């Protein structure tokens, strides 16, 4: 997922902002946790504002967030997901390697008996030429991602909508 | 000629050195990019920015990418033989165009080895600034690796009779929302760290933030502290054009770069690293970089002329110590240096982060305490919201705790973008904009 990001030594900054104002917290009181969401970058990506933004956003939707931070190696990502059993894994990449790294990571996740069924989303600025080709998105979905959000303003709104549905489903399952 | 000597020489004849960020995987394209920067109508120095696999030490992925023809986002200096890199920079320094390697690595020893082997001697970073914001390398490991890297550079210098140049990246720290006093403190402390390891040619960075006046205070504070703590070193100040979320309009991006160039001139800074007009949307081409360099140089020339003319604004105090930013930065530097023991400045930095004396707001690194928070006040100045363990009680004003939401964060992160895009789009109809800014937007710099 892409939130506001900053440029660093290696690449251009980018930004994807919500088309509409962000949803406010659902209630003034404490919201019961609706499960754990793991937010993570992938091995080569050092950007973190996107991850901080996603953490705040997902927390506001009532989930508990484990934020693995920047440059997370594949082994660590798999180990954390196995250990924590999250409701959802959200991968964010904005350094231009997201398409290739995303394919590698999702194949490893889907090949793992414990993680084959874990819902996994990816978003951000995924290629290095700017703008995702439909073909790349199809390929990511085909490799096992449940949703792919490219670098457009609609991305965040679609993402929050999807999380809303996920939390409703979970609330239903808990009853 | 040494990188620092070159910058000093340009400054002495009244010009600002301007520099891009630029890295291509293909050696011929890298060479062409450097030559285009050299030819630009500006006092330029060159940059080789490394790719992110090299930065993290994942050399297997570099080899795979080169083999499979997959794009890399920079120049893989460690993977190419030294002869290839020597070819890329052949003759450039000799004709007055020194090249700096920019990398972003918390463990740069392999990079230092490669650049020194290739005959390059200027690079940048720091044990804190390239560790906490960008990865998960433990801070003490980064400090040890940076110590070894500096020692390697100093050794090489002694053998070959050149002086390596190191620039701190500590004036950036996440690019935005780090209070300026902490940027100044970390930049100074990294310079003191380099100096203690035998590096005598230094530059101290400061990245443009949200308020021009506060930024000028910060750079004057940086100069004052560098003067006190690095009396026998050759040092200069490098300003980074805004490193946060960048304006989306070309006019807004240019206005922000112009503001950075004026900030550099007003504060007597010697070097400026530019951003391009397409920063918000794509990796710039060589031509975008050349355009940005020439534009920044033109704005700087005009500003210098303006400051020398009859309409010059009142001169700033020569002494940078009478400001809020200085008082905070000096207190932070003193608190960290108080902790210097057998582990030297590196050990003191590790201890300071462990105790939360230094604490970068919104930094996710496991070795950052993560108890401080920052916010933008009504006037757009970058302030502390919560101090955590940062020892500025009674020195820095703080805002009573209020939870920062994703919306607040977005707003703060996009403040500069919004302001400069608005100036570009509505010509500042509902906000005060300086005459010079108007003229820049109209395409006729003052």
TrEMBL record, chain A:
<feature type="region of interest" description="Disordered">
    <location>
        <begin position="1"/>
        <end position="31"/>
    </location>
</feature>
<dbReference type="GO" id="GO:0031419">
    <property type="term" value="F:cobalamin binding"/>
</dbReference>
<protein>
    <submittedName>
        <fullName>Methylaspartate mutase</fullName>
    </submittedName>
</protein>
<dbReference type="GO" id="GO:0046872">
    <property type="term" value="F:metal ion binding"/>
</dbReference>
<dbReference type="InterPro" id="IPR036724">
    <property type="entry name" value="Cobalamin-bd_sf"/>
</dbReference>
<feature type="domain" description="B12-binding">
    <location>
        <begin position="34"/>
        <end position="173"/>
    </location>
</feature>
<dbReference type="InterPro" id="IPR006158">
    <property type="entry name" value="Cobalamin-bd"/>
</dbReference>
<dbReference type="Pfam" id="PF02310">
    <property type="entry name" value="B12-binding"/>
</dbReference>
TrEMBL record, chain B:
<dbReference type="GO" id="GO:0050097">
    <property type="term" value="F:methylaspartate mutase activity"/>
</dbReference>
<keyword id="KW-0846">Cobalamin</keyword>
<dbReference type="InterPro" id="IPR016176">
    <property type="entry name" value="Cbl-dep_enz_cat"/>
</dbReference>
<protein>
    <submittedName>
        <fullName>Methylaspartate mutase</fullName>
    </submittedName>
</protein>
<keyword id="KW-0170">Cobalt</keyword>
<keyword id="KW-0413">Isomerase</keyword>
<dbReference type="InterPro" id="IPR006396">
    <property type="entry name" value="Glu_mut_E"/>
</dbReference>
<dbReference type="Pfam" id="PF06368">
    <property type="entry name" value="Met_asp_mut_E"/>
</dbReference>
<dbReference type="GO" id="GO:0031419">
    <property type="term" value="F:cobalamin binding"/>
</dbReference>
<dbReference type="GO" id="GO:0019670">
    <property type="term" value="P:anaerobic L-glutamate catabolic process"/>
</dbReference>
